[in-house]
Amino acid sequence: MSSADIDIKARSELYLKLIERQKVAIWTLCLHRAHYNLDRARDMSQEVMLALWKYMGSLRPDCTVEQERRWVLLRARGILLRMRQAEGPPMVVAEGMPEVAVEPDERDERLPLLLDRLDADDRRLMQMHLDGFSFAEIGTAMGISAAAARMRKSRIMHEMRKMAEKMFSPVGKKGTGKK
What we know:
Elements: H1 3-33, H2 38-55, H3 65-87, E1 92-93, E2 101-102, H4 106-116, H5 120-130, H6 135-142, H7 146-168
Antiparallel strand pairs: 1-2
C-alpha cells in the first residue's frame, strides 16, 4: 500500500465521521434553503457533501465538534449561495395554483441592480446577510467584529435607499424615504 492510498483511506474515514456527526446540520440547512422541497433539499445536500469532500484538506483534524460544525456550515452556505447564483432568480409560484407561475415583483428585480452598484466588500456583506448568515459569521468571514458587520450593513442599507430613490423615483418627484 502506498502513502497516497493511506492518505485517501484516512481522509475517507475522517470524511465519513464528519458527515455522520454533521448530517443533521447539513440536512436542516438544505431543507430550509430549498423551502422544504424534499427533492430539492436532497439535491442540495448531495452537492454540499461532494464539495465538503473536496474541502476536507482545509479542516483541522484537531478541531472540536463545534468548530467542525461551523466549518461545515460556512462551507455549505457558500456552496448553496453559488448554486443559487448559478440558477438565476426563482420563479414565484402563486399560492393555491401550483401549475401557474408568475414573474417576480418589480421590486425583486431592483435589488440586484442596487447590489451591483456596491463595491465588492459591501456587496459580499449584503449577499451574506441576504443568505441568512449571522452578523458573527459575516464578521468572521470578513475579518471584522459582529458589531462592525452590523454597523456596516446599516450604512450600506442607507446608501442603497438613497440609490433606489435616485434610480427608481419618477422624474421630477422626490423619494419619500427618511433622512
